[in-house]
Amino acid sequence: MGKCEQCIVRQFSSLKALGKEELLKIADCKTSYAIKKGEHIFEEGEITNGIYCIKDGVCKLSKLSSNGKDQIVKLFKAGELLGQRSIISEEPANLSAVALEDMEVCFIPKNEIMQFFNQNNQFSMNVMKTICGDLKEADEHMVDMAQKSVKERLAGTLIYLEETFGTETDGTLHLQLSREELAGMIGTATESCIRLLSELNKNNLIELVGKRIKIVDKNKLRRLAE
Question: Residue 22's CB: how many other CB atoms inside 10 A?
Fold first, then answer.
């Protein structure tokens, strides 16, 4: 059983407000899972009954539309918590969480988390701030979807992927989304996404290295995104 008070990732989330005694309580009641790439952490409509702390890896939160397309709403990485909104609103998960690479996650039951809410003011403030931040991001995303072209959204997403998840030694993006997933992030058809990537490649803004993507001219790409 891992010691929560020695876990680095807790410092990146609402859990940073918890004291040693509280962290020892979590260590006693949490369950750790290894989740393989492509597996669900939870599905849309599921009652989660707790929160998931991502120790390692990246997952996508997405919603399946009526036409069967997967719209990616957000990506979550190590240090972030999944399911905070659901336990406060007491609603089932409104999105599915799927691993984009092999992951390690810890599940903390709802009754333990709710105790901290009642006893630790800083913890509850941190959770509220996180949820407010998510709302702000959702607003900005909605404006982008309405006002920016698909090409502008693609340029912005590629920059976000590099700045958030970094690159490999050869300069290609560390987090490799499939063309379908990339299309699902920018809200377009896979064919359009493929066409736009080859256009950016032809204009020397990016380089396509097999299935991988490398940003070549970040300044031009940023100007295009804005």
Answer: 19
